[in-house]
Amino acid sequence: MFLSNPTLGTKEAYVPGLTQEYVAKTYGIPVGDVAKLGSAENPFGPSPKALAAVKEALKVESYPEWTARALREKIAAKYGYKPEQVICGAGETEIMSWIIRTFAAPGDKVLMFVPAFPIYHMAAENEGRVPVFIKMTDDLDFNWDAYLAAIKDVRIVFLTNPHSPTGRLLKLSDIRRVCEAAKDQLVVLDEAYIHFSNTNGGMDLVKEYKNLIVLRTFSKVFGLAGLRVGFGIADESVITPMMHLKPTWNMGALQVAGACAALDDDEYIKMTIETIAKMRKYILDKIASLNRFSVVGEPCSNFFLLRIEDPALDSTMMFNELLKRGVIVKDGSISFINLGKRYLRIDVSLQKQMDRLAWALTDISNAA
């Protein structure tokens, strides 16, 4: 029997959202009627320009350029940086693992709010690094005093903008406070969902702070989750050592071609953002009329955090009852540490899916 690496810090596995096919087969619901609201994917699918570019690039017998140079140049031009300031990976999650390995030694500490995206602490623990958790306030807002005070003892600082699972948007002034408090520590600003906030996010702060790396993904607004493409932008002093560590051919030709084309599809991006904003207001208005549930804060993402106000219900019970009604969400107690049994993270999607969610929540309320 082979033993695993003794430094592996967690036996926890990431819990992705369920598939429509699984729910359809399990509960006898037509697959087209299942509302998949647990993975924050683009309900329109991939950018048409990206899909065409992928089909055009189906010449796969040769090795790709090992640095994804064409995509790095495209990203750099889009956001006003040099290609040498850009690194690309198979989704943001791959880049996060390089960041932890490059900028923190075994035993070093990595700071994050909780609840937060679980890959932050899972990647740290599995590399022998030590996560430091700062609890959010009782209403799941940012506890900045405690967070800033903890920075002096860590090597890497994670921020998510908008935050997951709450969807709360960070103020640029607070991001600046973190970068200034960090000084010699690296600040990682994860902006996977920033497009849905209809703001520019913190990308321009890279010009001000050499200890900041901003991460973004093609899995959300660009609709390319299945291709696995993410990128980071930072000062060259941050990118260079990561380039030495990253796998040589981590980015295939189809990934590069699809992502390059997606960056040009401004009309598609605009349509997606406007639709999600409209549907976010639509579903939040409907939930406001249900006295057994409420929404945390003012979400600025393509998801929101539903608080279960009725003590007779909990998140796992609600998760399963929603599945029976053809609605897939995230059970907060399973997907996020320190969130407890009172919350569900739910995607914003098209009206058909939002109507099914509203019906399901109402039906559960009436049956309880």
Portion of residues in helices?
A: 25-40%
Strand content is: 15-25%
Low-confidence parts, pLDDT < 50 over ≥5 residues?
Answer: none
Number of helical elements = 13
Structural class: alpha/beta
Please, how many domains? 2
What's the order of the H and E elements? HEHHEHEHEHEHEEEHHHEEHEEHEH
Major sheet, described briefly? 7 strands, mixed
Overall body shape = globular
CATH class of the largest domain: Alpha Beta
Order of strands across the biggest sheet?
2-8-7-6-5-3-4
Radius of gyration over C-alpha positions, nearest whole angstrom: 21 Å
List how many beta strands DSSP finds: 13
**What is the fourth-level CATH superfamily of the largest domain?**
Type I PLP-dependent aspartate aminotransferase-like (Major domain)
CATH architecture term of the largest domain: 3-Layer(aba) Sandwich
3D structure, described in words:
This protein has 368 residues and is of the alpha/beta class. The chain has 2 domains: 20-45 and 267-367, Alpha-Beta Complex (Aspartate Aminotransferase, domain 1), CATH 3.90.1150.10; 48-264, Aspartate Aminotransferase, domain 2, CATH 3.40.640.10. Helices cover 38% and strands 15% of the residues. A 7-stranded mixed beta sheet has the order 2-8-7-6-5-3-4, with helices on both faces. Strands 9-10-13-12 form a 4-stranded antiparallel beta sheet. It has a two-stranded parallel sheet with strand order 1-11. Helix 7 (172-182) links the parallel strand 5 and strand 6 (186-190). Helix 2 (48-56) runs antiparallel to helix 9, helix 4 crosses helix 5 (119-126) and helix 10 packs parallel to helix 13 (351-367). The longest helix has 23 residues, at 266-288. The chain starts with 19 loop residues before the first helix and ends with a helix. The mean pLDDT is 94.
